[in-house]
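Supplementary Note 3. Input sequence used for the single-chain structure prediction.
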Amino acid sequence: MITHKKVLPHSRIQLTVTVSADQFRHAFDHELNEYTKSVSLPGFRAGKAPKAKVLEQVGRPRIEAAALDHAISHVYYEAVQEADIRPVEGPEVTIEKYETPSDSADPSGVVATFKVEVDVMPEVKIDGYKKIKIKPEPEKPVAEDEVEKVITYLRKQQAALVEVEEDGALEEGMWADIAYEGSVGGVKRPDMANKNHPLVIGEGQLIPGFEDQIIGMKKGEKKKITVTFPKEYHAKELAGKKAEFEVAVNELKRVNLPEKDADFAKRFGHSTFSELEKAIRESIVEEKRQESRQKQEQEVLDQLLKLAKFDLPQSLVKQEMERMYAEAQERLSKMNFDWDAYLEQVKKTADQVREETRPQAEKNVRIGLALGKVVEAEGLAESEQAAQQAVERLYEIATSK
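The predicted structure, written as discrete structure tokens, is reproduced below.
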């Protein structure tokens, strides 16, 4: 039975709940029966020992403790129904009072009082979401250089690597396999070393200035170079710093690109080169449409969040932070990068990295809860696709005249 209900910040509820003597006796009998099934006593078959003997063997305090836990779990479930709340995590329970009931105790008398605190699903209010409006973006034309860029990429994919003459030197557009070791301030860094790094000179894969300094090198040649990391470099501890590299050229080859003709087009399932160009152009048009749609959907969601009013359960935020943290670990793992080495490199603890995800995690949870309300308001079927269907419905509303 609930004797007090208190609304706490961040969509959290505190309930004061009582356990009656009758509820406790039922729980006690249940636990005693469970012990009777499992306790072995000399002279009795398993599960057939008298309950009095089992009680003596196990001890009343032990069974009472189990009974109290059982009673609290049962009464908590009833309290959730009575309070009409939807918990989003397990409760924090504090037992405030407990007295062993006597055999003559009033069945409705209170033998235990406990408090529970639990995060609950918030009441989401979104007034006026059907008034959300955005301006449709006009279809963006495809420039010829965009098509040419894709064609160049495909030609490079299909390129043949040809051995160079014995004294051949690295030039713009050549393919090379290099080895390098880097250091900052005289200290070598394992994350700045690679024994076999393939690249095409001029594509700008490496730090600005790196490729320029290895042009002219020959196979087997070694050289020391100095570069400066960009100020906006992703690894902040290296941003703007000078680094020294020892570079060696392992392999050196010329890149022979295929001609832009029908034979090339047939490699991609087209009869003529013009058909390939047309297919590429159509693909770019569709890509631009998708990008525009995603941008507009995000604009709709941003407007939805401005209208949505509700407290944010911190347990849901923490769950999302853990999901994002695990996702980051998985991304690095797929790149064969050790997570602990990454933390050492960025000079952060795991908790600090988790905390950095909080702003985005809060936004993700807010979007999820707000879309859940739209699903309910629009009468959409509950499913894994419900959130996306809600986004599509909002987009229809926002772009309708």
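The radius of gyration is 34 Å. The mean pLDDT is 93.
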